[in-house]
């Protein structure tokens, strides 16, 4: 009887960890997480900049920046 070696089954829990494995991944779930993190980062940054602009416009002379 011939025995065939079993092909190792890959599981997302056994993926390598670290920044390099995240940046060089081809896994669609990780790419989706990276898109979500990027979108939320820019959304929060835009919100903070909008708050800063509205704070600047509270008074005629400005509060944070001066020329």
Mind describing the biggest β-sheet?
Answer: none
Give the low-pLDDT segments: none
Number of helices: 2
What structural class do helix, strand and pairing data support?
mainly alpha
What's the average pLDDT?
A: 85
Taken in chain order, the helices and strands follow as HH
Estimated radius of gyration: 24 Å
How much helix is in the residues? 40-55%
Distance between termini? Answer: 86 Å
Overall 3D geometry?
rod-shaped
Give the number of DSSP strands: 0
* Percentage beta strand: under 5%
What does this entry show, briefly?
This protein is mostly helical and 67 residues long.
What's the SSE blueprint?
Blueprint: H1 19-23, H2 28-56
Name its key features.
single chain; 67 residues; mainly alpha; membrane; Cyt_c_oxase-like_su1_sf; transmembrane helix; Cytochrome c oxidase subunit I
